[in-house]
Write a structure and sequence with these properties.
By secondary structure, the protein is an all-alpha fold. The protein has helices at about 1-35, 40-65, 65-70, 75-85, 85-95, 100-125, 130-150, 155-180, 185-195, 200-205, 215-245, 245-250, 255-265, 275-290. Helix 1 (about 1-35) packs antiparallel against helix 11 (about 215-245) and helix 6 packs across helix 7. The two termini are about 35 Å apart.
Length: about 300
C-alpha cells in the first residue's frame, strides 16, 4: 500500500511540474503580448502583486503575523528588494526589448549559474564534476544565445542583460533564504505583501497605459501574473520539492524555455534564430546536467521558481 501511495504522489508531483512549466511559459508570453500592445512594465508588476497579494493576505491573516515577525522586517525588506517588486519590473522591462523566448531561456539558466557560484562562495558547497560541467555548458549556451543580439539589434542585447541580471537577483534571494533558514511560504508572503505597499505610488507616478487595455486583458494578467505565476506556481514547486526532492524538482527547469518557445511561436509569431534554438537546447541540457549533479543544494529550490515570487 505504501508503494502505491508513493507512486501516486510521484504522479501528482510530475503533473504539478508540468503544470508549473505551463504557467511560466504562459506568463512570459502573456507579459510580452501586453507589453507590445498596451501595458507597461509597471502596469504588469502592479497587476502581478495585486493578484498575488489577494491570495496571500487571507492566508497570513488567518494564520496570524507571528511567522512574519519571526522573519524580521529587515530580512523581509531585503528579500522583497531582490525578489519582490523590482524583480518583475526588470524582467518586464527586458521583455520590452527582447522576445519572450529570451526571458524563458536566460532567466532560469542564469539562476542555475549564479546559484551554483554563490553557493560555492558563501557556503563553500562542494561542487561535483558533473555539476561543474553543467554550469560550463550553461555559460556556453548563454554566450551563444546573446551572440546574434551582440552583432545586430542592440536593444535585444539590453533585454538579455536585464534577464541575466534578474537571475543574479533571484539567486541572491535564494542564498539569503538559505542563510536565514526562512520558511518558503513565509518568505514568499512577506515579499508579496511588502511589494504591494508601493503600488499606490506606482499608480500615481509611474508611466501607465492601463487605461488603454480592455477589462478582459487586465483580469487575464491579474490571473496569469498574480494568481498563477505569483502564488500557484510557488505552491506547486514546493510540493514537487517535498515529494521528489530538490534534485528531481530542478529537472523541470529546462522545460520552461522549451515550452515558452513553442507558445511564443504560436501566439506571438516570434521564432528564434537557428543558432538560438541550438543555444536553448544547450542551456536546457546544462540545467538538467547540473540539476542531476547537485549535492546538498536544496536551499535555492525551497524558494519560488524563476518566473517570480
Amino acid at each position: 500500500m505504501a508503494d502505491a501511495g508513493n507512486a501516486g504522489n510521484t504522479r501528482l508531483a510530475i503533473i504539478a511540474g508540468l503544470t508549473m512549466i505551463g504557467i511560466y511559459a504562459i506568463q512570459f508570453v502573456a507579459a510580452r503580448f501586453s507589453l507590445r500592445e498596451h501595458l507597461t512594465a509597471t502596469d504588469l508588476a502592479a497587476l502581478r502583486f495585486g493578484g498575488a497579494g489577494a491570495v496571500f493576505l487571507p492566508i497570513v491573516w488567518r494564520s496570524g503575523f507571528a511567522n512574519m515577525r519571526a522573519l524580521g522586517w529587515r530580512r523581509a525588506l531585503a528579500l522583497a528588494a531582490l525578489a519582490g517588486l523590482p524583480y518583475p519590473l526588470i524582467i518586464n522591462w527586458g521583455l520590452t526589448y527582447a522576445p519572450a523566448a529570451h526571458a524563458a531561456a536566460l532567466c532560469p539558466a542564469s539562476i542555475v549559474f549564479f546559484s551554483s557560484l554563490l553557493s560555492r562562495v558563501f557556503f563553500n558547497d562542494s561542487v561535483s564534476q558533473q555539476r561543474t560541467i553543467g554550469v560550463v555548458v550553461i555559460v556556453a549556451g548563454l554566450l551563444l544565445f546573446i551572440a546574434p543580439a551582440r552583432d545586430g539589434a542592440s536593444s535585444v542585447l539590453i533585454g538579455d542583460i536585464l534577464f541575466i541580471g534578474s537571475g543574479l537577483m533571484f539567486s541572491t534571494y535564494a542564498v539569503l533564504v538559505r542563510q536565514w533558514r526562512a520558511d518558503p511560504v513565509t518568505a514568499t508572503a512577506a515579499v508579496v505583501l511588502l511589494s504591494c505597499l508601493p503600488l499606490p505610488l506606482l499608480y500615481l507616478f509611474a508611466p501607465s497605459h492601463i487605461h488603454a487595455a480592455s477589462a478582459m486583458e487586465i483580469v487575464s494578467q491579474i490571473v496569469i501574473q498574480g494568481i498563477l505565476a505569483g502564488a500557484a506556481a510557488m505552491f506547486l514547486y514546493t510540493y514537487i520539492v517535498r515529494q521528489l526532492g530538490p534534485q528531481a524538482a530542478s529537472l523541470f527547469l529546462p522545460g520552461i524555455p522549451i515550452a515558452t518557445v513553442l507558445v511564443g511561436m504560436a501566439v506571438l509569431g516570434e521564432t528564434p534564430m537557428a543558432i538560438q534554438f541550438a543555444a536553448i537546447a544547450i542551456m536546457a541540457a546544462g540545467m538538467a546536467f547540473s540539476a542531476i549533479g547537485r549535492r546538498g543544494a536544496g536551499a535555492n529550490l525551497n524558494a519560488p521558481a524563476p518566473g517570480g515570487s
